[in-house]
Amino acid sequence: MPQVIPTSPETSKVSPLLDIRGLRTEFRTDRGTVRVLNDVSFSVASGEVLGLVGESGSGKSVTALSLLGLVPRPGRVTSGEAFLGGRDLMKMSHRDLSNLRGRDIGLVLQDAMTALNPVLTIGQQIGETLNRHLGLGRSQARRRAVDLLDRVGIPDPSSRVDDYPHQFSGGMRQRAMIAMALSCEPKLLIADEPTTALDVTIQAQVLDLLRNLKDEMGMSLIMITHDLGIIAGLADRVAVMYAGSIVESGPVRQVFKSPAHPYTQGLLASIPSITDTTKTELQAIPGLPPDLAALPQGCAFAPRCAQRRTRCETERPRLLPHNAGGVAACWLVNPAHEADPSHESRNNR
Fold first, then answer.
1. Are strands 319-321 and 327-329 parallel, antiparallel or unpaired?
2. Most CB atoms within 10 A, among 43, 144, 179, 201?
3. Per DSSP, what are the bridge partners of residue 106?
């Protein structure tokens, strides 16, 4: 049975815009089958911002690509469901998914320089999307592209619309990518590390832009990042990924204040603090993420966890609710597990 992460109390009263259940994606290689996504489940409500966080290689970007039918070969989605407005994306044809991308779901990639076509102007690239999904002619599409560039804060948009990507700065290219992703006013925007390689000032401007556009358009947003500071200031809820699975999810304030999973605790402990004067050293999570082609039998985080028990090494934990209001895939979350004699502590090994 796929694990289903419940929405927060505020969003559980209505049907989610996006509902992902038991998503599995794997790559078949010479080394064997690499399970990049292993039973991923989460939901996003209308108008909500969900932060998807985790270390590099945890499966964040592959989750987005799996939803949109863009997983490169030899990867493939092997099972799971992903309902958007009642339609299962996993059962749609390539043609239907192609029509949906850009129209119902917008995607902002982390490297705008490689994502944009270097031989087409910014206006031409935005115009292609408008022509395909809205049927706008060349002149209509150009006017719309100018309006979109103005909306995302590009100065002198009527002339910059005819520039090529290399004539834009890094921040302006990212804004152009956002304009393109929002050109058809999608219901859901997926932003995959949109502030990578940008300086702090430009990062803040891009995040403010996303926040304002989300409010103006009433769309939902999935923010994929490894930066917990971004999630703290932008997201309503957060889902933490490790080794291809969701290990914890809940309201941002609750997760940051009282993280339940040891991995989440480790991520938060590694962040420098300007208010806690007693925190003189950053705490690193020991060890390395597991080989996705040879995942351990039990909890994938167990080899790096100082709180692991015997059961952690033999049984994979399920997502369970905890007292603070979220869910976590950890045998320590449910107090009933404490009575299990097999939970002998491994801390003294």
1. antiparallel
2. 179
3. 189
CA distances in angstroms from 60 to 55, 123, 173, 260, listed in the order given: 9, 30, 23, 20
Look at residue 123 and give its three-state secondary structure: helix
Q: Tell me the domains of the chain and their CATH numbers.
A: 1-104+186-287 (3.40.50.300), 112-185 (no CATH)
Which segments of 235-312 does DSSP mark as H helices, in order? 252-257, 262-269
Confidence of residue 153 (pLDDT cuts 50, 70, 90): very high
Q: In sequence order, which residues have a C-beta less than 8 Å from that of residue 323 and are 6 or more positions away?
A: none
Contact predicate 185/129, CB 8 Å? no
Q: How many CB atoms lie within 10 A of CB 39?
A: 21
pLDDT digits (tens, 9 = 90+) for 22-41: 999 999 998 889 999 999 99
At 150, which amino acid appears?
Answer: D
